[in-house]
Amino acid sequence: MNPIASDVDVRVVSRTAVSDDLVVLELAPQGDEPLPAWEPGAHVDVLQPGGLVRQYSLVGPAGAQRWRLGVLREPDSRGGSTWMLDQVAEGTVLRLAGPRNHFRFDAAAHPRAVFLAGGIGITPIAAMADAAASAGIDYELHYAGHEGRMILVDELRERHGDRLVLHVSERGGRLDLEVLFGALRADTGVWCCGPLRLVDAAEQIAGAHGVAFAAERFEPEPLTAPVWDGPFEVELEYSGMTVEVAPDRSVLDVLEESGVFVLSSCREGTCGTCETPVISGEIDHRDSILSPSERERSDVMYVCVSRAACPRIVLGL
User: Locate the 2Fe-2S ferredoxin-type domain: which residues (predicted)?
Assistant: First the structure.
């Protein structure tokens, strides 16, 4: 479980526009305190006007004294990315929370690593590739995207040389996942981030080839019908309170209305802020964070979207 992180104020010291709807922001501490340490795969919450909170992955290298964020304007933005692109300039002071990490890279887990990034998904992957290079393991980095909408390309070429493979759509550089996974050794680990279509396809093919796979999704999974379609009870182990959750309510909403504080942010199962320990009961995991093995272990749930798959569950609250 990620520790609760305190807020930190940062100042935008550089704003690099890659295109009209894609920028890279470089951030420095506003005060004298250094920025908190972070590991590849981590993200921060950007606290925006009106109570909006948006998550952005930290761009490597992880040991740098400044942070970088890649910001893409989302077509169906509810204001978060639009505000970041239209209102944030050099000199702007931002309040962040974090960093948190639900997408860790362990260089010791596999002797060989393959990194797959699509579009803005390069942001957490870049730091992982840097870590693999520093650890001296065998790795390759595949980055797919559209001409003029790919960030850090020169930097990635300089750091990773022939280990970097660019798949630019306009140049016929389609990323053939079947060919890629078919050539992988069994001891390879794959880390992937990008659009849902890429991540879902890679996860399915990795499973078919028996390859270890970890992913981060920037979009919520499409919700299917719940496993348990009736009301259920949630018992809180430490307070002794029990609440009932109706079919049309989330666990998070009911807990908040009952006066139980649960740290939350995205409310769509993508950021991991509301991670809550599960003591007992079956869980219908509906987030975009947990891997299949983590869902099977079922020792945590994200109460903004996940539900009980039985009449009663007990949470570590």
Answer: 232-317
Q: Which amino acid is at 51?
A: G
Residue 130's closest CA among 54, 215, 58? Answer: 58
State the chain's maximal CA–CA distance in angstroms: 61
| 200: its two tokens | 């879902």
280 token code pair: 């007992």
Closest by CA to 197, choosing from 118, 100, 91, is 118
Task: Please indicate, yes or no, if residue 49 is contained in any of the structural domains.
Answer: yes
Best CA proximity match to 57, nearest among 122, 11, 148: 122
Q: How far apart are CA 285 and CA 35, in angstroms?
A: 34
**pLDDT at 221 > cutoff 80:** no
User: What is the reported pLDDT for 79?
Assistant: 67
Q: Which residue has the higher pLDDT, 27 or 196?
A: 27
User: pLDDT tens across 84-107, in order?
Assistant: 999 999 999 999 998 999 999 999
Do 117 and 179 share a domain, yes or no?
yes
Residue 247 CA to residue 250 CA, distance in Å, equals 8
Mark whether 131 and 205 lie in a shared domain: yes
Enclosing domain of residue 120? 112-217
**N-terminal to C-terminal alpha carbon distance within the chain:** 14
Asked which of 59, 76, 100 is the last residue of a domain, the reply is: 100
Q: What is the pLDDT of residues 178-216, one digit of tens each?
A: 999 999 999 999 999 999 899 999 999 999 999 999 999
pTM listed for this prediction: 0.83
State how far the Cα of 16 lies from the Cα of 27, in Å rounded to an integer: 12
Contact 223, 307 (CB under 8 A): no
Q: Is 260 exposed, middle or buried (0-12, 13-18, 19+ CB in 10 A)?
A: middle
Q: What is the average pLDDT across 47-62?
A: 87
Compute the Cα dihedral for 71, 77, 80, 86 and give only its sign: positive
